[in-house]
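Q: Hi! First time doing this. I have a protein sequence and I read that you can turn it into a structure. Is that right? Here it is:
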Amino acid sequence: MPVLGRVAGLWRRLLQPLNRSVRTRFVTLALLPLAVGFPVLLLLLAGWGGAAFEELLVFKVRSDLAVAATYFERVQNDVGRSIEALASSEALADARRQPRARSSDVLLRERARSLGLDYLLLLDAHQRVVAASLPASLGLRYPQPSVALAASGGTQRTMLDVFSPAQLAALSPSLRTRSHIVLLATPGARPSGRRVSDNGLLLHAAARVPGRPLVLVGGVLLNRNLEFIDRIRRLVYPQGSLPASSRGSATLFLDDTRIATTVTQPRGGRVIGSRVSQEVSAQVLGRGQAWLNRARVVSDWYVSGYQPLRDSRGQRIGMLYVGFLEQPFVLAKWMALAVLFVLFAITMAAAAWVSWRFARSVIGPVERLRQTMSEVAAGRLDARVGTLPQQDELALLAAHFDALLARLEAQNQAMLRWAGELDGKVAERTRELAAANHTLLSAQQQLFKSEKLAAIGQLAAGTAHEINNPVAVIQGNLELMQELLGEAAAPVLPEIRLMREQVQRIRLIVAKLLQYARPSEYAGDLQQVQPREVFQDSLLLVGYQMNRGNIAVVKQWHSSATLLANRFELQQILINLILNAIQAMPQGGVLTLSAHDAPGSDGRPGLRLSVADNGNGIAEADMARLFDPFFTSKHDGTGLGLWVCQGLAERSGGVIEAANQSQGGAVFSVWLPCEPALAAAGLAVL
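A: Yes, that's right. Below is the predicted 3D structure, encoded as structure tokens:
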């Protein structure tokens, strides 16, 4: 009784979640067969089907291994029969009777090539080579005499034997080279201190020459014999015998090392020199049992078949392997199980649907009520249950619930309308206040700017008046000096001309200063200007400051365009920028001047002139105020240079900008418009 009580209590606890919801009880009733029966049947099917599928794969690889072994035996027999036929042929007898020396060697060389053998040797009664397809073998005692001794007794023999490096080298250096294989690191292989494999696996046969105490021996080295192993793979796995995504492979092993294989590396090339896993090696080479199971081949899993190879003394010396990639078959197995799963799921779903149809008349209305309550709780007051198909207590409950929701929505809409009107009034007052603040701020800024411009105008007018008088005296004296000197002034005419130009430039600067006092009275003259020439003139005028400041100049002219601008205004801009760059490099540095074509923001053709230094750059706090009047970071500056440059650039339709360079220093760029016709007419810039 106590046990039954505990069981009953456990059962009630398990059913407690179902008792909380009618919907849960009906859903459980409908889906219980699917939830319990389907996993059990699926597990049974997967277990039985998986075992049967693995047995089928093992059966296939056993058949493949049998085909490969049969072909290997047939090759051995074919080699033996070919040797026996040649030993009994009239061609060999005729060659031995020829008076010319080495006639037998020529015949053996030709027959070895036609039979696909690496060598053919004719041995005397002491197993010494008297004729050979390999000239280096003459006089050699055959390294593996057992096959020759068996043939001397009248028995044709075909054997597999392992030849040492010295024995291979005695036959032919090329055979020694082919047998040398560098071992590759192979995870899971038997631990070994070897780094190379030098032995050779030879298939050789011998037959007695009738009527003579001679034996004919021929052999083929299986190390790196890719043609032989490819023939086995094509025979075992012909085109279409495996799924498109699978691949078959074949391998010959000497001991546990691959000496000929069709298995390739991911980056190309065959994995000759890799080794078989320790588990396979122990079963096949250690116990002499065939391996028919899945095994890791280099980096992939293959369904594999291995069988031992034995030499003339019956010793296990290597393995013959065939196998195919396992993954496509595993995918096919899971695909078949998936199809069965889908079919079974459809069947179970159909059965559950029948039960579900009877439960929907109750679950549907309850679910609609629950969903409507969730939507209302989330803020959707327009959600409704709607009309139910049945006329029962649930339908009356739904109609009453919808009426309550409609009343609640009407009250909420009224509150939202009142709140919206209040928010609109607040927003309107806020916009009016923001507009008033903006107007006041703009007026303050304009007043401040007007006051500064007025001060600048007064200063400019006074300065211009004071400068014009000495400039007039200088200009008059220059003309008088040239007139008095006459032809004696010829050596200094370039300097006089330069002085006149600079006097004119002073007058233009004075005119610009007067412009800030009386802008409407200013008028500038335009001419075609080569940027390179203006740069050169500017450098000439600041030559003293550059020499004193140890400044190197880098010129980068990448444009042939011609500007339509006021030459002296452009020169004034460049001189200001160059002097600023020199002052930014008090310890010396590199001044970079460049000119290159650059379209404007509106797509107009234009020219960008840049002046760059490798000084300390511009402080981020100063960047936004660089072009403000009277702003300067120098202790002796006036703060008008960059402001004047900006005004000159803007009057020419251009833009002046400043930025810091990633490698250090600052760069000032002046963009000026350049009409296409002027660019075409410009001079080439070297």
